[in-house]
Design goal:
Layout (H helix, E strand, L loop, with lengths): L1 H11 L3 H7 E12 L4 E5 L4 H4 L4 E4 L4 E5 L2 E11 L5 E13 L2 E12 L8 H20 L9 E8 L6 E3 H13 L7 E9 L5 E10 L2 E12 L2 E11 L6 H8 L3
Parallel strand pairs: 1-7, 8-13
Antiparallel strand pairs: 1-2, 3-5, 4-5, 5-6, 6-7, 8-9, 10-11, 11-12, 12-13
Helix pairs in contact: 1-2
């Protein structure tokens, strides 16, 4: 990320010598504008970097870094303000190579979007996650089997019994008879904490639920997919107050 941050600063300061120092001699450049109908190339030459500059540019999430031996890829979503004061959104993409122990940029592309709504802020993502979880719980209460569509492929559900470690397929087979009776179960959310990952692709949460078993805690991991947020892992636990723990231990571990 140090090289990427330097690259951005040198573009803003129009420092071609410093950019040359941290990039390969044959660096590929692409500056593009994406709207609903087409992709327009604004420039692909070194000097185009300076002709197209921003007054201010900030990443909404920590840019994602993928390092594979001597190659690396970095991409991030940004909000920027141009020289007229207009706000724009887009994506930066870098490819780097490690030469003689030093990282060099050999490809840079910047794509500006026609509408900023294509990138959602953190607060909006948190609202969508909460809405998704509330809808998901509500579907179980009315026996709607689209409940299972809210799980990502390869997900797991952990129930309250020690043996209940289910793949989504096994959990569905277990739960379908309960859904067919009209209402599987009714879990009502009392409170929830949601945390969004740096890259905006994953989130994790914990929630307190009113259930037929009493107060429970659900914890989970969610993955952002093309059609919305999906549950990758969910674990349900019955909560036992400290004042009741000795009684509880005796009950489940009789002498």
């Amino acid at each position: 990320m140090q090289i990427v941050n330097q690259f951005g600063r040198y573009i803003q300061s129009k420092d071609s010598l410093q950019i040359a120092h941290i990039s390969s001699s044959n660096m590929a450049i692409a500056l593009a504008y994406l709207n609903a109908d087409s992709l327009q190339i604004l420039g692909n030459q070194f000097n185009d970097l300076f002709a197209h500059s921003w007054l201010e540019k900030n990443y909404q999430y920590v840019p994602q870094v993928d390092i594979r031996s001597s190659f690396a890829m970095v991409y991030g979503y940004f909000i920027a303000k141009d020289t007229t004061g207009m706000v724009k959104c887009g994506t930066d993409h870098y490819q780097l190579i490690k030469l003689n122990g030093t990282w060099k940029v050999f490809e840079f592309s910047e794509t500006v979007y026609d509408e900023c709504k294509t990138i959602k802020g953190k607060n909006q993502e948190l609202k969508e996650i909460n809405k998704t979880l509330n809808t998901w719980h509500g579907l179980a209460a009315v026996g709607d089997t689209s409940y299972f569509d809210y799980f990502a492929e390869g997900s797991f559900y952990l129930g309250t019994d020690p043996k209940e470690v289910w793949s989504i397929e096994a959990f569905k087979n277990f739960a379908l008879p309960y859904f067919r009776r009209g209402s599987a179960w009714s879990f009502k959310n009392k409170s929830r904490n949601v945390h969004l990952g740096d890259y905006g692709h994953y989130a994790w949460f914990d929630e307190k639920l009113d259930t037929w078993m009493g107060l429970c805690r659900g914890t989970g991991v969610m993955e952002k997919q093309v059609d919305g947020w999906r549950i990758k892992h969910y674990s349900l636990t019955v909560l036992v107050p400290n004042s009741k723990i000795k009684e509880y231990v005796k009950m489940i571990n009789p002498q």
